[in-house]
Amino acid sequence: MDKPEINKPQPEFLPKLKMPGFLDEILRTVLFVVVVTVLFDMAIPRSLVDGNSMQNTFQDAERLIVSRLHYLVTIPERGDIIVFNSVSANDPDVMLIKRVIGLPGETVEFIGTQVYIDGILVDEPYIREPCSDFNCDDDIIYLGEDEYFVMGDNRNSSNDSREFGAVPIDHIVGRVVFRYWPPTRLGAIQHQDYEKLSP
Q: Which one, 20, 59, 130, 173, has the greatest CB density within 10 A?
């Protein structure tokens, strides 16, 4: 007579950790994080405000996020706050933050410390204070193709296109889109909207 089969509990075994596979997974994860970080920094670099040339819009030591992608689908507009590589041969690696005032092909003119574009007075509610005679001498600037005239919002304490000239389009890094430090001033950056200058 056959004996009934008794199902004996099978011993449980913990899966063995294969070190080569485990190390490979760690390396892949680290590589993925590095690649994503580099791509993020390339597409959306971060910038540190250094100085007071953009007061009251930005304060010294504030941290900003800049969008490189914005100008892949459009071009800089008047009122945009941009980050760009210095046009000075002495500081080619320095990045600056200024506001776009004059666009390619336009004439920028200073008359009695006020700014005119193609003969039309520009309304600038964002500036910290009126420009002084010393900092805004009467002058006229003709912009070429792909050239932008930029200035700081703190006109009396800004090194900008009045000093170093127009900024070529290929020097522009991107548009400032967000302030993430300090937390009390966290938020999206508002840009002055100039649909069209009216006489």
A: 173
Residue 193 tokens, joined: 């909207």
1 is written with which tokens?
């007579």
Domains and CATH numbers, the chain: 46-188 (2.10.109.10)
Please list the pLDDT of the chain residue by residue as tens digits (199 residues).
Answer: 555 555 555 555 555 555 566 676 676 666 655 544 444 444 445 678 889 999 999 999 999 999 998 899 999 999 999 999 998 877 777 899 999 999 999 999 999 999 999 999 999 999 999 899 888 899 999 999 999 999 999 999 999 999 999 999 999 999 999 999 999 999 999 889 887 675 5
- 8 A C-beta contact, residue 71 and residue 172: yes
| Residue 21 identity (one-letter amino acid) | G
Q: Which of 3, 47, 67, 98 is catalytic?
A: 98
In whole angstroms, how far apart are CA 122 and each of 24, 86, 127, 175? 60, 25, 12, 21
How far is 43 from 40, CA to CA, in rounded Å? 5
Which residue of the set 3, 47, 53, 196 is catalytic?
53
Quote the CA–CA distance of 157 and 90 in Å, as a whole number. 20
The yes-or-no answer on residue 98 being catalytic is: yes
